[in-house]
Amino acid sequence: MGSGSEEAAPLLLPVAAATATAEERCPGCVQERRKASRGGRIPYTELFFVAVTTLASSLPITCLFPFLYFMVRDLQVAQTEEDIGYYAGFLGASYMVGRSFAAIFWGVVADRIGRKPVIVFSILSVVIFNTLFGLSTKYWMALTTRFVLGALNGLLAPIKVNTAWGLGLVVGPALGGYLAQPVEKYPHVFSKESVFGRFPYLLPCLGVSLFAAIVLISCIWLPETIHKHKSPDKDIKRIKELPLQQAYWDSPRKKSLFQNRPWMSTMISYCFFGLHDTAYSEILSLWAVSDRKYGGLSFSSEDIGQVLAVAGASLLAYQLIIYHWVHKFLGPIISLRIASALSILILSTYPFMTYLSGAELSLALYSAAMMKSALAITISTGICLLQNNAVLQEHRGTANGVSTTAMSFFKAIAPVGAGVLFSWAQKRQDALFFPASAAWTQEPAAKQLAALASELTFKEEIRRD
Protein backbone atom coordinates (compact mmCIF):
# COMPACT_ATOMS: atom_id res chain seq x y z
CA MET A 1 0.00 0.00 0.00
CA GLY A 2 2.77 2.39 0.97
CA SER A 3 4.76 1.78 -2.20
CA GLY A 4 1.63 2.21 -4.31
CA SER A 5 0.97 5.62 -2.78
CA GLU A 6 4.55 6.67 -3.34
CA GLU A 7 4.36 5.66 -7.00
CA ALA A 8 1.02 7.44 -7.55
CA ALA A 9 2.12 10.71 -6.03
CA PRO A 10 4.61 11.69 -8.76
CA LEU A 11 1.96 10.98 -11.39
CA LEU A 12 -0.54 13.36 -9.80
CA LEU A 13 1.80 16.31 -9.50
CA PRO A 14 2.27 17.02 -13.24
CA VAL A 15 -1.50 16.76 -13.80
CA ALA A 16 -2.23 19.25 -11.04
CA ALA A 17 0.49 21.55 -12.32
CA ALA A 18 -0.89 21.34 -15.86
CA THR A 19 -4.40 22.12 -14.63
CA ALA A 20 -3.18 25.11 -12.64
CA THR A 21 -1.23 26.37 -15.64
CA ALA A 22 -4.26 26.02 -17.91
CA GLU A 23 -6.43 28.01 -15.52
CA GLU A 24 -3.74 30.66 -15.07
CA ARG A 25 -3.46 31.12 -18.83
CA CYS A 26 -7.20 30.90 -19.50
CA PRO A 27 -8.50 34.40 -20.47
CA GLY A 28 -11.91 33.61 -18.97
CA CYS A 29 -10.35 32.71 -15.63
CA VAL A 30 -8.19 35.84 -15.75
CA GLN A 31 -11.33 37.95 -16.20
CA GLU A 32 -13.06 36.17 -13.33
CA ARG A 33 -10.08 36.86 -11.04
CA ARG A 34 -10.09 40.51 -12.09
CA LYS A 35 -13.81 40.71 -11.41
CA ALA A 36 -13.34 39.20 -7.96
CA SER A 37 -10.46 41.57 -7.15
CA ARG A 38 -12.58 44.64 -7.96
CA GLY A 39 -14.89 43.97 -5.05
CA GLY A 40 -18.06 44.78 -6.97
CA ARG A 41 -16.72 47.94 -8.64
CA ILE A 42 -17.84 48.56 -12.23
CA PRO A 43 -15.04 48.07 -14.83
CA TYR A 44 -15.56 51.37 -16.63
CA THR A 45 -12.46 51.07 -18.83
CA GLU A 46 -13.40 47.68 -20.24
CA LEU A 47 -17.04 48.72 -20.62
CA PHE A 48 -15.90 51.77 -22.58
CA PHE A 49 -14.03 49.68 -25.16
CA VAL A 50 -16.95 47.26 -25.47
CA ALA A 51 -19.36 50.18 -25.86
CA VAL A 52 -17.42 51.92 -28.64
CA THR A 53 -17.16 48.59 -30.44
CA THR A 54 -20.93 48.16 -30.26
CA LEU A 55 -21.38 51.74 -31.42
CA ALA A 56 -19.21 51.09 -34.48
CA SER A 57 -21.43 48.13 -35.31
CA SER A 58 -24.70 50.06 -34.90
CA LEU A 59 -23.79 53.12 -36.96
CA PRO A 60 -23.99 51.40 -40.39
CA ILE A 61 -27.58 50.43 -39.56
CA THR A 62 -28.83 53.69 -38.06
CA CYS A 63 -27.16 56.19 -40.43
CA LEU A 64 -29.00 54.73 -43.44
CA PHE A 65 -32.60 55.67 -42.59
CA PRO A 66 -32.46 59.48 -43.08
CA PHE A 67 -31.20 59.23 -46.68
CA LEU A 68 -32.57 55.83 -47.74
CA TYR A 69 -35.53 57.34 -49.62
CA PHE A 70 -33.34 59.84 -51.50
CA MET A 71 -30.64 57.26 -52.30
CA VAL A 72 -33.16 54.91 -53.91
CA ARG A 73 -34.59 57.85 -55.83
CA ASP A 74 -31.15 58.89 -57.13
CA LEU A 75 -30.25 55.33 -58.11
CA GLN A 76 -33.17 55.59 -60.57
CA VAL A 77 -34.47 52.09 -59.99
CA ALA A 78 -38.05 53.09 -59.12
CA GLN A 79 -40.36 53.73 -62.06
CA THR A 80 -42.56 56.17 -60.12
CA GLU A 81 -42.21 58.10 -56.89
CA GLU A 82 -44.71 55.78 -55.22
CA ASP A 83 -42.41 52.80 -55.96
CA ILE A 84 -39.49 54.22 -53.96
CA GLY A 85 -40.74 52.69 -50.72
CA TYR A 86 -40.89 49.27 -52.39
CA TYR A 87 -37.21 49.30 -53.40
CA ALA A 88 -36.15 51.01 -50.17
CA GLY A 89 -37.66 48.09 -48.27
CA PHE A 90 -35.47 45.56 -50.05
CA LEU A 91 -32.37 47.69 -49.57
CA GLY A 92 -33.10 48.12 -45.88
CA ALA A 93 -33.68 44.37 -45.53
CA SER A 94 -30.48 43.26 -47.28
CA TYR A 95 -28.32 43.83 -44.20
CA MET A 96 -30.57 41.70 -42.00
CA VAL A 97 -30.82 38.97 -44.63
CA GLY A 98 -27.06 38.69 -44.67
CA ARG A 99 -26.87 38.64 -40.90
CA SER A 100 -29.53 35.94 -40.64
CA PHE A 101 -27.43 33.62 -42.83
CA ALA A 102 -24.24 33.97 -40.80
CA ALA A 103 -25.24 34.77 -37.20
CA ILE A 104 -25.21 31.15 -35.95
CA PHE A 105 -21.81 30.60 -37.55
CA TRP A 106 -20.36 33.64 -35.78
CA GLY A 107 -21.90 32.53 -32.48
CA VAL A 108 -20.26 29.10 -32.71
CA VAL A 109 -16.93 30.66 -33.73
CA ALA A 110 -17.12 33.05 -30.78
CA ASP A 111 -17.65 30.13 -28.38
CA ARG A 112 -14.81 28.07 -29.88
CA ILE A 113 -11.95 30.42 -30.73
CA GLY A 114 -12.93 33.48 -28.71
CA ARG A 115 -15.01 36.64 -28.74
CA LYS A 116 -12.18 39.00 -29.64
CA PRO A 117 -11.28 37.56 -33.09
CA VAL A 118 -14.94 37.74 -34.14
CA ILE A 119 -15.17 41.35 -32.97
CA VAL A 120 -12.00 42.39 -34.81
CA PHE A 121 -13.10 40.77 -38.07
CA SER A 122 -16.57 42.32 -37.81
CA ILE A 123 -15.21 45.83 -37.30
CA LEU A 124 -12.84 45.35 -40.25
CA SER A 125 -15.80 44.40 -42.45
CA VAL A 126 -17.55 47.64 -41.44
CA VAL A 127 -14.51 49.67 -42.52
CA ILE A 128 -14.41 48.06 -45.97
CA PHE A 129 -17.98 47.37 -47.00
CA ASN A 130 -19.65 50.41 -45.49
CA THR A 131 -17.30 52.55 -47.59
CA LEU A 132 -18.18 50.52 -50.69
CA PHE A 133 -21.87 51.09 -49.94
CA GLY A 134 -21.30 54.84 -50.01
CA LEU A 135 -19.63 54.43 -53.41
CA SER A 136 -22.62 52.59 -54.89
CA THR A 137 -23.87 53.97 -58.19
CA LYS A 138 -26.21 51.09 -58.99
CA TYR A 139 -29.02 49.60 -56.95
CA TRP A 140 -27.58 46.08 -57.20
CA MET A 141 -24.24 47.30 -55.83
CA ALA A 142 -25.89 48.96 -52.84
CA LEU A 143 -27.93 45.81 -52.25
CA THR A 144 -24.87 43.53 -52.45
CA THR A 145 -22.61 45.58 -50.19
CA ARG A 146 -25.30 45.80 -47.51
CA PHE A 147 -25.88 42.05 -47.70
CA VAL A 148 -22.16 41.25 -47.35
CA LEU A 149 -21.81 43.78 -44.53
CA GLY A 150 -24.58 42.04 -42.60
CA ALA A 151 -23.16 38.57 -43.28
CA LEU A 152 -19.66 39.50 -42.06
CA ASN A 153 -20.83 41.38 -38.99
CA GLY A 154 -20.88 38.92 -36.10
CA LEU A 155 -20.80 41.38 -33.22
CA LEU A 156 -24.19 40.49 -31.76
CA ALA A 157 -22.92 37.00 -30.95
CA PRO A 158 -20.19 38.04 -28.47
CA ILE A 159 -21.48 41.38 -27.14
CA LYS A 160 -24.69 43.28 -26.45
CA VAL A 161 -24.66 46.81 -24.99
CA ASN A 162 -28.00 48.56 -25.35
CA THR A 163 -26.67 51.88 -24.07
CA ALA A 164 -24.16 51.99 -26.92
CA TRP A 165 -26.98 51.11 -29.32
CA GLY A 166 -28.90 54.08 -27.92
CA LEU A 167 -25.90 56.30 -28.61
CA GLY A 168 -25.85 54.86 -32.13
CA LEU A 169 -29.43 56.03 -32.55
CA VAL A 170 -28.21 59.56 -31.82
CA VAL A 171 -24.99 59.65 -33.83
CA GLY A 172 -26.09 57.49 -36.79
CA PRO A 173 -29.17 59.46 -37.90
CA ALA A 174 -27.30 62.73 -37.29
CA LEU A 175 -24.48 61.59 -39.59
CA GLY A 176 -26.91 60.36 -42.22
CA GLY A 177 -29.14 63.41 -42.05
CA TYR A 178 -26.50 66.16 -41.97
CA LEU A 179 -23.76 64.62 -44.14
CA ALA A 180 -25.78 63.03 -46.95
CA GLN A 181 -25.96 65.10 -50.18
CA PRO A 182 -23.29 67.57 -48.94
CA VAL A 183 -23.08 69.41 -52.27
CA GLU A 184 -26.73 70.47 -51.95
CA LYS A 185 -26.52 71.33 -48.25
CA TYR A 186 -23.05 72.88 -48.09
CA PRO A 187 -22.29 74.22 -51.62
CA HIS A 188 -19.61 76.59 -50.28
CA VAL A 189 -17.62 73.65 -48.89
CA PHE A 190 -18.24 70.86 -51.43
CA SER A 191 -18.25 71.38 -55.20
CA LYS A 192 -20.15 69.35 -57.75
CA GLU A 193 -16.87 68.23 -59.32
CA SER A 194 -15.60 66.71 -56.06
CA VAL A 195 -15.90 63.04 -55.14
CA PHE A 196 -18.80 63.89 -52.86
CA GLY A 197 -20.63 65.47 -55.77
CA ARG A 198 -20.42 62.22 -57.71
CA PHE A 199 -21.18 60.08 -54.67
CA PRO A 200 -23.67 62.12 -52.58
CA TYR A 201 -24.00 59.46 -49.87
CA LEU A 202 -20.31 58.67 -49.42
CA LEU A 203 -19.60 61.26 -46.72
CA PRO A 204 -21.81 59.76 -43.93
CA CYS A 205 -20.61 56.24 -44.84
CA LEU A 206 -17.00 57.40 -44.82
CA GLY A 207 -17.49 59.02 -41.42
CA VAL A 208 -18.79 55.71 -40.04
CA SER A 209 -15.90 53.79 -41.61
CA LEU A 210 -13.29 56.15 -40.17
CA PHE A 211 -14.77 55.76 -36.70
CA ALA A 212 -14.78 51.98 -37.16
CA ALA A 213 -11.09 52.13 -38.15
CA ILE A 214 -10.29 53.92 -34.89
CA VAL A 215 -12.31 51.34 -32.95
CA LEU A 216 -10.44 48.57 -34.77
CA ILE A 217 -7.20 49.88 -33.26
CA SER A 218 -8.80 50.10 -29.80
CA CYS A 219 -9.69 46.40 -29.99
CA ILE A 220 -6.18 45.77 -28.67
CA TRP A 221 -7.49 46.63 -25.22
CA LEU A 222 -10.63 44.51 -25.46
CA PRO A 223 -10.66 41.69 -22.88
CA GLU A 224 -11.20 38.07 -23.93
CA THR A 225 -13.77 36.25 -21.78
CA ILE A 226 -13.87 32.74 -23.20
CA HIS A 227 -12.63 29.83 -21.08
CA LYS A 228 -9.87 27.85 -22.80
CA HIS A 229 -10.01 24.79 -20.54
CA LYS A 230 -12.70 22.26 -19.73
CA SER A 231 -14.06 21.70 -16.23
CA PRO A 232 -17.37 19.81 -16.60
CA ASP A 233 -17.82 19.28 -12.87
CA LYS A 234 -17.54 22.98 -12.09
CA ASP A 235 -20.99 24.03 -13.22
CA ILE A 236 -22.71 20.98 -11.69
CA LYS A 237 -21.11 21.71 -8.33
CA ARG A 238 -22.08 25.37 -8.59
CA ILE A 239 -25.72 24.56 -9.27
CA LYS A 240 -25.87 22.14 -6.32
CA GLU A 241 -24.56 24.85 -4.00
CA LEU A 242 -27.20 27.38 -5.10
CA PRO A 243 -30.45 27.96 -3.18
CA LEU A 244 -33.43 25.89 -4.36
CA GLN A 245 -35.12 28.67 -6.33
CA GLN A 246 -31.91 29.68 -8.15
CA ALA A 247 -31.01 26.04 -8.81
CA TYR A 248 -34.46 25.55 -10.37
CA TRP A 249 -33.81 28.50 -12.68
CA ASP A 250 -30.31 27.30 -13.57
CA SER A 251 -31.24 23.67 -14.24
CA PRO A 252 -32.81 24.30 -17.71
CA ARG A 253 -29.63 26.13 -18.73
CA LYS A 254 -27.71 22.83 -18.77
CA LYS A 255 -30.02 21.45 -21.45
CA SER A 256 -29.97 21.98 -25.20
CA LEU A 257 -30.94 25.50 -26.29
CA PHE A 258 -34.13 24.29 -27.97
CA GLN A 259 -35.13 22.40 -24.79
CA ASN A 260 -34.55 25.52 -22.71
CA ARG A 261 -38.10 26.88 -22.45
CA PRO A 262 -37.19 30.21 -20.74
CA TRP A 263 -34.67 30.97 -23.47
CA MET A 264 -37.03 29.89 -26.27
CA SER A 265 -39.81 32.15 -24.98
CA THR A 266 -37.52 35.17 -24.82
CA MET A 267 -36.16 34.42 -28.31
CA ILE A 268 -39.67 34.41 -29.79
CA SER A 269 -40.41 37.74 -28.12
CA TYR A 270 -37.07 39.04 -29.39
CA CYS A 271 -37.99 38.11 -32.97
CA PHE A 272 -41.42 39.74 -32.96
CA PHE A 273 -40.05 42.88 -31.33
CA GLY A 274 -37.34 43.06 -33.99
CA LEU A 275 -40.02 42.78 -36.68
CA HIS A 276 -42.05 45.57 -35.13
CA ASP A 277 -39.16 47.93 -34.36
CA THR A 278 -37.52 47.64 -37.79
CA ALA A 279 -40.82 48.14 -39.61
CA TYR A 280 -41.44 51.23 -37.48
CA SER A 281 -38.01 52.72 -38.29
CA GLU A 282 -38.48 52.03 -41.99
CA ILE A 283 -42.00 53.46 -42.23
CA LEU A 284 -41.24 56.51 -40.08
CA SER A 285 -38.39 57.60 -42.34
CA LEU A 286 -40.23 56.90 -45.61
CA TRP A 287 -43.43 58.55 -44.39
CA ALA A 288 -41.69 61.66 -43.06
CA VAL A 289 -39.66 62.39 -46.22
CA SER A 290 -42.41 61.56 -48.76
CA ASP A 291 -44.44 64.39 -50.26
CA ARG A 292 -47.58 65.65 -48.54
CA LYS A 293 -49.61 64.82 -51.63
CA TYR A 294 -48.88 61.17 -50.80
CA GLY A 295 -49.82 61.56 -47.13
CA GLY A 296 -46.27 62.30 -45.91
CA LEU A 297 -44.67 65.28 -44.17
CA SER A 298 -42.31 66.51 -46.96
CA PHE A 299 -39.31 66.38 -44.62
CA SER A 300 -35.71 66.59 -45.83
CA SER A 301 -33.05 64.04 -44.87
CA GLU A 302 -31.75 66.60 -42.39
CA ASP A 303 -35.21 66.97 -40.80
CA ILE A 304 -35.79 63.26 -40.27
CA GLY A 305 -32.18 62.80 -39.15
CA GLN A 306 -32.77 65.40 -36.47
CA VAL A 307 -35.97 63.70 -35.32
CA LEU A 308 -34.21 60.33 -35.06
CA ALA A 309 -31.21 61.87 -33.31
CA VAL A 310 -33.38 63.58 -30.69
CA ALA A 311 -35.30 60.33 -30.18
CA GLY A 312 -32.00 58.51 -29.73
CA ALA A 313 -30.74 61.11 -27.26
CA SER A 314 -33.89 60.73 -25.18
CA LEU A 315 -33.45 56.95 -25.31
CA LEU A 316 -29.88 57.28 -24.06
CA ALA A 317 -30.88 59.60 -21.21
CA TYR A 318 -33.76 57.32 -20.27
CA GLN A 319 -31.57 54.24 -20.10
CA LEU A 320 -28.79 55.91 -18.14
CA ILE A 321 -31.01 57.72 -15.63
CA ILE A 322 -34.53 56.26 -15.49
CA TYR A 323 -34.45 52.63 -16.62
CA HIS A 324 -32.58 51.51 -13.50
CA TRP A 325 -35.57 52.50 -11.38
CA VAL A 326 -38.06 50.98 -13.80
CA HIS A 327 -36.17 47.68 -13.66
CA LYS A 328 -35.85 47.86 -9.89
CA PHE A 329 -39.54 48.40 -9.15
CA LEU A 330 -41.19 46.51 -12.03
CA GLY A 331 -38.64 43.95 -13.15
CA PRO A 332 -37.93 43.03 -16.79
CA ILE A 333 -41.13 41.08 -17.47
CA ILE A 334 -43.72 43.54 -16.15
CA SER A 335 -41.90 46.57 -17.61
CA LEU A 336 -41.72 44.75 -20.96
CA ARG A 337 -45.47 44.12 -20.97
CA ILE A 338 -46.37 47.69 -20.00
CA ALA A 339 -44.02 49.15 -22.62
CA SER A 340 -45.51 46.92 -25.33
CA ALA A 341 -49.04 48.05 -24.50
CA LEU A 342 -48.08 51.74 -24.44
CA SER A 343 -46.31 51.40 -27.79
CA ILE A 344 -49.65 50.60 -29.42
CA LEU A 345 -51.12 53.85 -28.14
CA ILE A 346 -48.13 55.90 -29.30
CA LEU A 347 -48.15 54.41 -32.80
CA SER A 348 -51.86 55.13 -33.23
CA THR A 349 -51.17 58.89 -33.00
CA TYR A 350 -48.88 59.13 -36.04
CA PRO A 351 -51.57 59.13 -38.81
CA PHE A 352 -53.24 62.18 -37.27
CA MET A 353 -50.03 64.24 -37.42
CA THR A 354 -50.63 64.93 -41.10
CA TYR A 355 -53.29 67.41 -39.99
CA LEU A 356 -50.62 69.44 -38.14
CA SER A 357 -47.93 71.84 -39.26
CA GLY A 358 -45.30 74.14 -37.80
CA ALA A 359 -44.69 74.02 -34.06
CA GLU A 360 -47.66 71.74 -33.41
CA LEU A 361 -46.29 69.11 -35.80
CA SER A 362 -42.79 69.35 -34.31
CA LEU A 363 -44.08 68.99 -30.77
CA ALA A 364 -46.27 66.01 -31.60
CA LEU A 365 -43.70 64.20 -33.74
CA TYR A 366 -40.74 64.72 -31.41
CA SER A 367 -42.78 63.74 -28.35
CA ALA A 368 -44.09 60.57 -29.96
CA ALA A 369 -40.65 59.59 -31.30
CA MET A 370 -39.01 60.15 -27.89
CA MET A 371 -41.63 58.14 -26.02
CA LYS A 372 -41.50 55.34 -28.59
CA SER A 373 -37.70 55.14 -28.24
CA ALA A 374 -37.90 54.91 -24.46
CA LEU A 375 -40.50 52.15 -24.68
CA ALA A 376 -38.45 50.28 -27.29
CA ILE A 377 -35.30 50.26 -25.16
CA THR A 378 -37.34 49.07 -22.18
CA ILE A 379 -38.53 46.10 -24.22
CA SER A 380 -35.17 45.23 -25.79
CA THR A 381 -33.20 45.57 -22.55
CA GLY A 382 -35.68 43.41 -20.68
CA ILE A 383 -35.51 40.73 -23.38
CA CYS A 384 -31.69 40.77 -23.41
CA LEU A 385 -31.53 40.40 -19.62
CA LEU A 386 -33.92 37.46 -19.72
CA GLN A 387 -31.99 35.85 -22.56
CA ASN A 388 -28.60 36.11 -20.87
CA ASN A 389 -29.97 34.73 -17.59
CA ALA A 390 -31.51 31.75 -19.38
CA VAL A 391 -28.20 30.24 -20.59
CA LEU A 392 -24.77 29.54 -19.12
CA GLN A 393 -21.92 31.93 -19.86
CA GLU A 394 -20.02 29.53 -22.12
CA HIS A 395 -23.13 29.00 -24.26
CA ARG A 396 -24.05 32.65 -24.71
CA GLY A 397 -22.18 33.08 -27.97
CA THR A 398 -24.08 30.23 -29.61
CA ALA A 399 -27.35 31.32 -27.98
CA ASN A 400 -26.89 34.90 -29.20
CA GLY A 401 -25.99 33.57 -32.65
CA VAL A 402 -29.17 31.51 -32.88
CA SER A 403 -31.38 34.32 -31.56
CA THR A 404 -29.66 36.84 -33.84
CA THR A 405 -30.30 34.59 -36.85
CA ALA A 406 -33.99 34.27 -36.00
CA MET A 407 -34.31 37.96 -35.17
CA SER A 408 -32.44 38.99 -38.33
CA PHE A 409 -34.84 36.91 -40.41
CA PHE A 410 -37.78 38.81 -38.92
CA LYS A 411 -35.91 42.10 -39.32
CA ALA A 412 -35.29 41.21 -42.96
CA ILE A 413 -39.01 40.65 -43.52
CA ALA A 414 -39.92 43.92 -41.80
CA PRO A 415 -38.42 46.47 -44.25
CA VAL A 416 -39.66 44.51 -47.27
CA GLY A 417 -43.17 44.18 -45.90
CA ALA A 418 -43.22 47.76 -44.64
CA GLY A 419 -41.87 49.15 -47.93
CA VAL A 420 -44.34 47.17 -50.06
CA LEU A 421 -47.24 48.16 -47.82
CA PHE A 422 -46.15 51.80 -47.85
CA SER A 423 -45.92 51.93 -51.66
CA TRP A 424 -49.26 50.15 -52.00
CA ALA A 425 -50.91 52.69 -49.68
CA GLN A 426 -49.45 55.63 -51.59
CA LYS A 427 -50.76 54.27 -54.89
CA ARG A 428 -54.29 53.98 -53.43
CA GLN A 429 -54.69 57.60 -52.37
CA ASP A 430 -57.87 57.94 -54.45
CA ALA A 431 -59.25 54.44 -53.86
CA LEU A 432 -62.79 54.00 -52.54
CA PHE A 433 -61.73 51.39 -50.01
CA PHE A 434 -58.89 51.09 -47.46
CA PRO A 435 -56.53 52.92 -47.24
CA ALA A 436 -58.59 55.55 -49.02
CA SER A 437 -60.66 55.97 -45.84
CA ALA A 438 -57.54 57.59 -44.38
CA ALA A 439 -56.10 58.90 -47.64
CA TRP A 440 -58.98 61.11 -48.72
CA THR A 441 -59.07 62.72 -45.28
CA GLN A 442 -55.37 63.57 -45.78
CA GLU A 443 -55.76 65.49 -49.03
CA PRO A 444 -52.82 67.55 -50.25
CA ALA A 445 -52.65 71.02 -48.78
CA ALA A 446 -53.38 72.61 -52.17
CA LYS A 447 -56.63 70.66 -52.52
CA GLN A 448 -57.68 71.54 -48.99
CA LEU A 449 -56.98 75.25 -49.57
CA ALA A 450 -58.83 75.16 -52.90
CA ALA A 451 -61.84 73.51 -51.27
CA LEU A 452 -61.79 76.07 -48.45
CA ALA A 453 -61.53 78.97 -50.90
CA SER A 454 -64.43 77.59 -52.93
CA GLU A 455 -66.55 77.24 -49.81
CA LEU A 456 -65.77 80.82 -48.70
CA THR A 457 -66.60 82.16 -52.18
CA PHE A 458 -69.92 80.28 -52.14
CA LYS A 459 -70.81 81.69 -48.72
CA GLU A 460 -69.85 85.21 -49.83
CA GLU A 461 -72.16 84.96 -52.85
CA ILE A 462 -75.02 83.80 -50.65
CA ARG A 463 -74.43 86.72 -48.27
CA ARG A 464 -74.50 89.21 -51.14
CA ASP A 465 -77.73 87.78 -52.51
From TrEMBL:
Coiled coil: none
GO terms, molecular function: transmembrane transporter activity
Origin: domain of life: Eukaryota
InterPro entries associated with the record: MFS, MFS_trans_sf
Name of a matching Pfam family: MFS_1
Membrane-topology annotation of the record: Multi-pass membrane protein
Location of the protein in the cell: Membrane
Main localization (coarse): membrane
Gene Ontology cellular component annotations, sorted alphabetically: membrane
Protein name as it appears in the record: Major facilitator superfamily (MFS) profile domain-containing protein
Organism of this sequence: Oryza rufipogon
UniProt lineage: Eukaryota, Viridiplantae, Streptophyta, Embryophyta, Tracheophyta
